[in-house]
Amino acid sequence: MKKSRFVQIVLLISSLFMGLAVAEDVTPGDIMHGTDEAVTITGLSYADEDEWVEIANPGMASQDFTFWTLVDEGNNTYSFSEGFVLIPGATVKVHTAQGNDTENDLYWGRDDLVWDDGEAAMLINANSEIVALYPESS
Predict the structure, then answer these.
(1) What domain range includes position 56?
(2) Looking at the structure, do residues 24 and 47 belong to the same domain, yes or no?
(3) Both 48 and 9 in a single domain?
(4) Domains in the chain: how many in total?
(5) What is the pLDDT of residues 30-57, one digit of tens each?
(6) DSSP string, 92-112
(7) Staple 138 to which of 70, 78, 115, 120, CB 3.0 to 4.6 Å?
(8) What is the pLDDT of residues 116-127, one digit of tens each?
């Protein structure tokens, strides 16, 4: 019985070292190669009863939205709360109206409408750079 346990331990340790030897040549750049997709605005609803802008993170890394803003052509500005993070593959809707924030729905808290038909939405990062524009042709 002791030999069997010893053999299991030896096999486990050797498997660990073999895995480390193989992984030794892998860098974070290798893993992330080709996954540097930008956050995008995927939709905008002009509906009077529920205006919203949908934002997606198609990338492989979480995106921190601290100091990011969502702006319309009239310079109405929604500021993301400090520490809001959009995980890879997730979407969030920023609603114009009032409500309680969740990980999938954020609320601007306005009583009036913001988005006019055909108006562009801009997502601006903490460096004041336009990250996304919707519709893209705007």
Answers:
(1) 40-134
(2) no
(3) no
(4) 2
(5) 333 333 458 999 999 998 889 999 999 9
(6) EEEESS-----SSEEE---SS
(7) 120
(8) 888 999 999 999
Residues 74 and 10 in one domain: no
pLDDT above 90 as % of the chain: 64
Regarding whether 113 and 48 lie in a shared domain, the answer is yes
Question: Which own/partner pairs from 69-72 qualify as long-range (CB within 8 Å, at least 24 positions apart)?
Answer: 69/123, 69/124, 70/94, 70/121, 70/122, 70/123, 70/124, 71/121, 71/122, 71/124, 72/114, 72/115, 72/116, 72/119, 72/120, 72/121, 72/122
- Concatenate the DSSP letters of all residues of the chain into one string: -HHHHHHHHHHHHHHHHHHHHHHTT--HHHHHTT--PPPEEEEEE--TT--EEEEE--SSS-EE-TT-EEEETT--EEEPPTT-EE-TT-EEEEESS-----SSEEE---SS--PPTT--EEEE-TTS-EEEEESTT-
| Other Cβ atoms closer than 10 A to 134 | 19
Which positions ≥6 away from 25 have C-beta within 8 Å?
none
Query: Are 123 and 39 a contacting pair, CB within 8 Å?
Result: yes
